[in-house]
Amino acid sequence: MRKPSLLFCLSVLPVVYGVTIDLSIIGKTEDLGKLAAATSGSLEEIEGSVEYGLEGEGYHRDLVVTLKRQGRGRGTDWIVVVNVTSQFYIDLDQISQMAAFGGPDLISSGHINTEQNVADSGSHIVLVYVTMRGSETEVKVPLHLRYQATGSTPYSAAIIPTPHLLMKVPEGGTVSLPCFPTSPSPLCLWRRPSLPAPSHPPLVAMVPIGQNNHLIPVVVVTVFLTFGSMLYLMQTLSHLTSKDKNCESVNINLMDIERVLVFPSKEVPICHLGFNKTSEL
């Protein structure tokens, strides 16, 4: 593998098969293909297994990656390459908050907008760094499914591509990526291991969506409640205003009753609806 040039070192960009890829644009389709090609090359021999799964319900899930290996030696540092499609996102702010509590360490190919829906969002690459302390390690990455367009069924399938796995090697690597998730440099060599691939297809999460046949009833009820609330509010305000105008005449009728009562002060408020006139005993 060729040595990086001085210009490359200054730009601090990872290299895939000698092609410079900026982390800020690695989410583009052509660059995703290059990284996928690097993760599907020759295998690094190691005994073990990897399992992928989803935990949780609704729009908030956890991608669970379980790594197992036999014996000791190489295979302690790993990268789980997650292709974040437009169907879901990883909240980078949430990941930062989880770091102090042992959360996952990762690098994203760029800023991930958490407010966009499926139609407006793009794709990203996220590198999840895993260090094995024993024969088995499990890492959980929080995923959040994006809102999808309405349809004719109550649920829609969100496809989560099966992640790729890379192992750090001293030489013969097929891809150069940052050694640590805290900095884009220095770079280390990584290679796809010979762990058995998951037998299941890409992960699927069923999410609730709005139904087209509910559109008209929802609009009608919303408009009715909105105008009904406005009319009720206007009627209530009009009623209170009318009472304020008649407050003085009501006070006159109450004068005889008030003179019979014993009040602690000389001034007794006559109207409690915004009218400030008082009567002296």
UniProtKB/TrEMBL annotation:
<keyword id="KW-0256">Endoplasmic reticulum</keyword>
<feature type="signal peptide">
    <location>
        <begin position="1"/>
        <end position="18"/>
    </location>
</feature>
<dbReference type="GO" id="GO:0006506">
    <property type="term" value="P:GPI anchor biosynthetic process"/>
</dbReference>
<comment type="function">
    <text>Stabilizing subunit of the glycosylphosphatidylinositol-mannosyltransferase I complex which catalyzes the transfer of the first mannose, via an alpha-1,4 bond from a dolichol-phosphate-mannose (Dol-P-Man) to the glucosaminyl acyl phosphatidylinositol (GlcN-(acyl)PI) intermediate to generate alpha-D-Man-(1-&gt;4)-alpha-D-GlcN-(1-&gt;6)-(1-radyl,2-acyl-sn-glycero-3-phospho)-2-acyl-inositol and participates in the sixth step of the glycosylphosphatidylinositol-anchor biosynthesis. Probably acts by stabilizing the mannosyltransferase PIGM.</text>
</comment>
<comment type="pathway">
    <text>Glycolipid biosynthesis; glycosylphosphatidylinositol-anchor biosynthesis.</text>
</comment>
<dbReference type="GO" id="GO:0005789">
    <property type="term" value="C:endoplasmic reticulum membrane"/>
</dbReference>
<feature type="transmembrane region" description="Helical">
    <location>
        <begin position="215"/>
        <end position="234"/>
    </location>
</feature>
<dbReference type="Pfam" id="PF08320">
    <property type="entry name" value="PIG-X"/>
</dbReference>
<keyword id="KW-1133">Transmembrane helix</keyword>
<keyword id="KW-0472">Membrane</keyword>
<keyword id="KW-0812">Transmembrane</keyword>
<keyword id="KW-0337">GPI-anchor biosynthesis</keyword>
<keyword id="KW-0732">Signal</keyword>
<dbReference type="InterPro" id="IPR040039">
    <property type="entry name" value="PIGX"/>
</dbReference>
<keyword id="KW-0325">Glycoprotein</keyword>
<comment type="similarity">
    <text>Belongs to the PIGX family.</text>
</comment>
<protein>
    <recommendedName>
        <fullName>Phosphatidylinositol-glycan biosynthesis class X protein</fullName>
    </recommendedName>
</protein>
<dbReference type="InterPro" id="IPR013233">
    <property type="entry name" value="PIG-X/PBN1"/>
</dbReference>
